[in-house]
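Long-time lurker. I teach an intro course on protein structure, and each term I like to show students one example going from raw sequence to a predicted 3D structure in token notation. This year I'd like something fresh instead of my usual example. Would anyone be willing to generate the tokens for the chain below so I can use it in lecture? Attribution to the forum is fine with me.
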Amino acid sequence: MSQHFLNKQEKEKRIIELHLQNKTIREIAKEVHIAFSPISKIIKAFERKAKRKVRNQSSLPKKPSLSTQSFILYKEGKQIDDVKILLDIPFNLASRYWKQYQKSIGMFESYEFYRDYQYDIPTLLSINNFMKKNNVYGNNVLNILRDVKDLSTLQLSRSILKYEIAELEKNKNLQQFYQNNRYYLP
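-- Reply from a regular --
Happy to contribute to a lecture. Here you go:
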């Protein structure tokens, strides 16, 4: 090789070229005038980079993550227990993936509702059916429920109405009495 000086990148490139020609470290060191240790480091770095490149270009498809696998199973209609068994993961992890899947498809609120009210659903459905059959609207029911918050309020309202009815009947009877006896109020 001619006697011109190589910069660092040129030396590294030349070391790799010689290495690919199956030259020994001693032969490479003699040509590029570098000690054995830096040559070994350059060759090892090149080989690591080459292995990574081969791994990335591998024709084998990458295995999807557990969460992705569980999302696919949930999309296919599998239940939490099925996913737990198929992926061999703990229940709490399968449940967490299920919640994440529900959020991703915009159904998490429905799941929370179901979890909180699952035992009340038959009653809620029968109330809904009654409302539909009788043309009762949700606002009407809400207004009634707001007015009658508890039983004591209802009982108090009932007592007041009974008293007012009794007073009205009393006044009505007095007026009839005066009319029948022709007495006039002063």
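Some talking points for your students: The chain has three domains: 8-56, 66-142, 148-186. Residues 151-180 form the longest helix (30 residues).
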